[in-house]
């Protein structure tokens, strides 16, 4: 009986772990929101304590346009390369109505170098930053007319969690049944 309780507890803990940690294994998960692509000798490091900081206000001041916008992501790095000039691309997945910009510290201020997802040539490297702005959205179009067919609600997929839960529970049942026969 003690073994049955222990295996039941183990099965419950495994199911809870799968349900909690399962979303971490979802396809397309990224640990960082920007991928910096360049030659093999490109070195990307965290900013130094005395580096100038790219703030949302400084980044916004360099961007043309009067549209309402909000800085939703911003980061910076120290990037070095043994060969200059160097072409670097900052790859970012942008949502609707978002634009991303790349900045370079010129020694006295931040210069707008170009857009994310486009190759940018750097003649000098020093602190480099990326800012993502969410622009005011356009008016939402009217919904498409209903054709009378019922629609099913959007739901999440728990297929992996359920499959692993079934395997754990099945394994527990097999283990218990073999223990009882012994």
How big is the Rg?
Answer: 26 Å
Assign the structural class, choosing from mainly alpha, mainly beta, alpha/beta, alpha+beta, or little secondary structure. Answer: alpha+beta
State the separation between the terminal residues, measured CA to CA: 14 Å
Helical content stands at: 25-40%
* Strand line-up in the sheet with most strands: 2-3-8-5-6
Q: Let me know the average pLDDT.
A: 78
**Count of DSSP helices?**
3
The portion of residues forming beta strands comes to 25-35%
Q: So what's the overall shape?
A: elongated
Biggest sheet descriptor: 5 strands, antiparallel
Order of helices and strands: HEEHEEEEEEH
Uncertain stretches of 5 or more adjacent residues: 18-31, 151-157
Number of strands: 8
Molecular structure report:
It is a single chain. The protein has 182 residues and is of the alpha+beta class. It is 27% helix and 29% strand. Helix 1 runs antiparallel to helix 3. The protein has 3 helices and 8 strands, in the order H-E-E-H-E-E-E-E-E-E-H. About 12% of the residues have low confidence. The longest helix is centred in the last third of the chain and has 23 residues. The chain is elongated.
Blueprint (SSEs and pairs):
Layout: H1 2-21, E1 35-37, E2 42-45, H2 56-62, E3 69-81, E4 86-91, E5 98-105, E6 110-115, E7 120-122, E8 127-135, H3 159-181
Antiparallel strand pairs: 1-4, 2-3, 3-8, 4-7, 5-6, 5-8
Helix pairs in contact: 1-3
